Amino acid sequence: xxxxxxxxxxxxxxxxxxxxxxxxxxxxxxxxxxxxxxxxxxxxxxxxxxxxxxxxxxxxxxxxxxxxxxxxxxxxxxxxxxxxxxxxxxxxxxxxxxxxxxxxxxxxxxxxxxxxxxxxxxxxxxxxxxxxxxxxxxxxxxxxxxxxxxxxxxxxxxxxxxxxxxxxxxxxxxxxxxxxxxxxxxxxxxxxxxxxxxxxxxxxxxxxxxxxxxxxxxxxxxxxxxxxxxxxxxxxxxxxxxxxxxxxxxxxxxxxxxxxxxxxxx
Length: 266
What we know:
Layout: H1 5-11, E1 17-23, H2 25-31, E2 48-53, H3 58-69, E3 76-83, E4 89-94, H4 104-111, E5 123-129, E6 142-151, E7 156-166, H5 171-182, E8 190-197, E9 203-206, E10 223-228, H6 241-254, H7 261-264
Parallel strand pairs: 1-5, 6-10
Antiparallel strand pairs: 1-2, 3-4, 3-5, 6-7, 8-9, 8-10
């Protein structure tokens, strides 16, 4: 028998266009610490958006990304950005090789039980650019953390890089790497904090460098803020990143406008 008009119309429905926002490390570097953006990782209103049909595969999207950013597909690892229960947006997991062959619609069906894949305003992704030192096959012991460096003397915070850490390792193991990234001397005393959330209040907690990342519940998408020891900085208005974040949050709560560094010094 012939298909009913309703069935024919469903079958003939064209693919729906969806927005895919792809954040890169360049975005994190240019956003964090600039134009009043201090918390979280990226302002998704200011990243490149791709408009693609919902039957497009992840592999096809990577081809478009390759053209736009001049990064060959084989050097791309895409991560799903999700909104956490505390309101922050963080990368939660990379897409597997098998998932690269699925359409956006299929990925939505696969992931929606655990994650909000298709947000009302599209899909949000993080593009990791692979190099010789990038871990190829990630295990449950690997965690991708993002690093912010706070300078109390300049009252400035900036994005300084990302790092894979082992859940079974300790923050003390990465201190040489953190010093190197910041340009600190080899014996510089430092303080590490985890940036947890910023609504309804700023929450930034000191990290014990001698217990494992697993015990501190630090893993994919978490933010480590670090700085020189605040012991000798008590004469500064905001000697620690924890105090700095709380001050920024209080200023925005009183007058909800974009605050820049000069306004902190008034």
